[in-house]
Amino acid sequence: MKGECWMFQRFHEKLQEREGGFTLIELLVVVLIIAILAAIAIPVFLRQREKAYIADTQSTLRNAATAAESWSTLNEGSYVGFDASVDFTDVRAADTATLTVPTESATGYCIQVVDTRLAGHATWATGHFDSATGKPEGGAC
Question: What pLDDT is recorded for position 83?
Fold first, then answer.
């Protein structure tokens, strides 16, 4: 019994003498785990950001289409003059989007948005809303 107490006492003294801290291997493992998690998370974040920009473009197109329909209601069903007199500053979501009406007639319109944040995206860098289809689509009018 006395020998066992001596061993525990000596082990306890060795633990108190040892300096605290992390070994180099432990630090490298933690850095490696963080690097792996970052490599997974960053591309996912970038894809979600691109989806948000596309949704913003689609929302801007729908808002402009609502403005066009309101214009038509106030002008006896005609869209003539819609592009010249409408102030799009309230319709645009941000300074990154340019909203234009390249074609308008008495019976229809095509609204186009060019978003600079989506310059690398082939489909939605330029989006349009055509009164004939009634939905936002990628590409020019």
Answer: 73
Contact yes or no for 128/61 (Cβ under 8 A): yes
Write out residues in the chain with pLDDT < 70, as ranges. 1-7, 14-20, 84-95
32 torsion bin: left (phi>0), alpha (psi -120 to 50), beta (else): alpha
CA 134 to each of CA 68, 82, 100, 129, 131: distance values in angstroms, whole numbers, following the listed order: 12, 17, 17, 7, 5
One-letter amino acid identity for 123?
Answer: T
Where do runs of H (alpha helix) occur along 18-131?
24-74, 82-85
Measuring CA to CA, which residue among 96, 108, 101, 99 is closest to residue 132? 108
Q: Residue 79: what are its φ and ψ, rounded to 5°?
A: -100, 0
Cα distances from 114 to residues 21, 83, 120, in angstroms, run 55, 16, 12
The per-residue pLDDT for range 62-86, each reduced to its tens digit, is 888 888 888 888 888 888 877 755 6
DSSP 123: T
Q: Domains of the chain: which residue ranges?
A: 23-138
